[in-house]
Amino acid sequence: MYESEPSNVLTIAFLKCDKLHPSTIPTHGTYEDVLNNLLKPLIATSDTPLLELETLSFDVVHKRQYPTELELRRVDAIIV
């Protein structure tokens, strides 16, 4: 287990396992946009959010990208 300093940044690693159909991107944005639009309202409790959202995105299927051990030390959650 890694020890880390408390932070006001919520860091999420997003492991992409698919591609969006190109026709949906103009309306809904990329997977990262959809994820941010879903999560940002949940962490904002007022006009000044207590947490900032940081999303690290990895294309695990098409580019075989994975978080490094150093990146995983800063991650609070992983979404697949």
Radius of gyration: 14 Å
| Spatial strand arrangement across the major sheet | 2-1-3
Q: In what range is the share of β-strand residues?
A: 15-25%
Topology as H/E string?
Answer: EHHEHE
> What sort of overall outline do the alpha carbons produce when their principal axes are compared?
flat
Unreliable residue stretches:
none
By DSSP (H or I, 4+ residues per run), the number of helices equals 3
Please, could you describe this protein's structure?
The protein has 80 residues and is α/β, with parallel strands linked by helices. Helix content is 29%, strand content 24%. The chain is built from 3 helices and 3 strands; from the N terminus they run βααβαβ. It has helices at residues 25-28, 31-43, 69-74, and strands spanning 9-16, 52-59, 77-79. The mean pLDDT is 86.
Short structural description:
By secondary structure, the protein is of the alpha/beta class.
List keywords for this structure.
80 residues; alpha/beta; three-stranded parallel sheet; 3 helices; 29% helix; flat
